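Each record in this resource describes a single protein on a pair of labelled lines. An example record follows, reproduced without changes.
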Amino acid sequence: MPTGTEREVERRRRAAPAVVLAPPLVWLAVFFLIPVLLVAMYSVGALTLFPGDRYLSLDAWARFLSGDQVYLGLFWRSIRISLLVSTIAVVSAYPVAYYLALVAVRRRYVLLLLIIAPFLTSYLLRLLAWRVILGDQGIVNTFLYTVGLREPGHPVPWLLYSPFTVVVVLAYVWVPFVCLPIFVSLDSIDRSLLEAAADLGARRWSTFLRIVLPSSRSGLAAAFAFVFVPTIGEFVTPLLVGGPRGFMFGNAIADLFGPGLDWQTGSVLSLFLVLVVGALMAVFSRSFSVEHVAAIAEVGSAGRGAGETAASSGGRRILAVLYVLLVAFLYAPIAILVAFSFNSSPSVTFPLRGFTLEWYRAFLANGALVGALRTSALVAGLTSVVAVALGLPAAFALARRRSRGRGLVGGILLAPLVIPYLVLGIALLVLFNAVGVPLSPITIAIGHVVLALPFSVLVLAPRLGRIDRALEEAAMDLGASPLRVFARVTMPLLTPAVISAALIAFTLSFDEYAVASFLAGDQVTYPIYLFSQLRFPNRLPQVLAVSTLVLLGSLVLVTAVEVARARAERRLAAPVAVSEGVA
């Protein structure tokens, strides 16, 4: 029979997950679940903030669902665009992920990093680059004028400000991220199955259809969902490159909470979007389990390549060419931005005029730009610290405890991954207005922590799961307290993952516009400043110069983190090798 002390230890062990999970779950309850609930209340008039709001009325819902207005039509247009973008992104990413996982064995993580690196460039600046490429005086139309396929002054009308542009740009934005879940699912395939199929005389195409494709189905589902769900609520891309013909559901919501000043109708549309996202999350629930998405974030230890089993020599060359074409597609807009930062003309239009360093000198004298950078750095720094501080206990609870309700808790922690940023920004705006909290950089950081917390958990949890528990148990057997074990054993092994999580949170926050645009108040962040400067083309070269420096700094940081990660992998593998040798 267990003693009283043993019962107390067991009680504390069972209570530990609830204790460590309390901070992140309370944060999400206050700044994620409650704001969405307030939006629901606002949509039926149970909460009002303006004199013109209706009280306890379903009229706004009735008008929306009746189809008399254009909103349902915009919603179905957004669904069609999201389906097209998701399909293009997945189809484009699959052969590249196949090449990295099964063919390009050596330095495949370096090659994968090349695919992911464009995320380090400002999202708004990448949109600006596409305006330069597809604009009336852009690269494509200028080329058509030069070769005589179009008359000067008569550009191709659908290249810019059309649904075509929205689809192309969104596919460009999402392809790097889509490569990750597909790569992980392909990398986890047992190579012996491919070799056995080859030994039995199966053709490569048959092996692909019967083994590879079914085994990568979960990665394909996750990749599709990661694109489809957020794209439904997209509003920044249609606003900048879509024009009136590329208007989407998210643009209608943003207008209702902005110039339209009809928060009740906006709340109806926002809640409708949340319900749709919730239904889609239920459909893709397996793809959003903690274990599955953590595997995507981890990109764990590499299996050996499948070599000739995966592709013939001709097939390997074709896959290599596809990889090079995708890299060129991803980096061409970034190269254009860097080139224009050295262009002597203040106009960001093609062709280039001459070389200058003036814009790099001038931005230091631009007080508004420097102030926006300082605000973004402050918000991003605060976001990274809080996101890691909240993510660490959540990761411990999910990685070290197998308690009941773990799936539900994991679902709550991952929910901000798929909710459109637009809806979160609006929900927090309603919350802060309802309780009278003034908008400031702090309110932006609160929203960004909600967005960054799932990434923090997903980076930290798999690292914790790979740390040999025998090391911690040995330290405790030698008399070390749990706190000392964490500080002297666990944390040194976890530090690279902590740095990675902080870097992801910092990068996400520094470049985020949708949530910040609703919560900024008087102090604007760098993305908000950049968005405002898009109306003044002569001011953009200074912004491009700053962005070039930010990109270089980000690449240095990511390279340093990757080196630290590789070293940590070796440190984690060393105890396992020793224990296997002893055995």
